[in-house]
Amino acid sequence: MASSTGRLYKLYVSNIPWTVSHSELRQYFSKYGPVNLATVIFDKNTGLSRNFGFVFFGNRQGFEEAQKLIEHKLEGQVLKVAPSTQDQE
């Protein structure tokens, strides 16, 4: 569910291991707050991960909590996390 204003808070996540799925990304970030959607971007031609994705939080608190951690690690790899901008889409 979105916040009471209907807004979603979107994080850009890069350096995602190529083996990570949408559900694994969602599960990892759900410890910070309710995740409405987590998506890993895949190459349309090869079907391989492009090693980045987006996580949409339904509230500001989860969005901010996820950014507080200096080093996110998933499957032994350090993720880069930042608020999403239009240029990343």
UniProtKB/TrEMBL annotation:
Q: Which domain of life is it from?
A: Eukaryota
- Which is an annotated GO molecular function term of this record? RNA binding
Protein name as it appears in the record: RRM domain-containing protein
Q: Which organism is it from?
A: Hypothenemus hampei
Q: Tell me which UniProt keywords the record has, alphabetically.
A: RNA-binding
The cross-references to SMART domains, in alphabetical order and at most eight, read: RRM
Q: Where is the RRM domain?
A: 9-86
**Could you tell me which SUPFAM superfamilies the record lists for this protein?**
RNA-binding domain, RBD (SSF54928)
Give the matching InterPro entries.
Nucleotide-bd_a/b_plait_sf, RBD_domain_sf, RRM_dom
- Which Pfam families is this protein grouped with? RRM_1 (PF00076)
Q: Which PANTHER family match?
A: RRM DOMAIN-CONTAINING PROTEIN, TRANSFORMER-2-RELATED
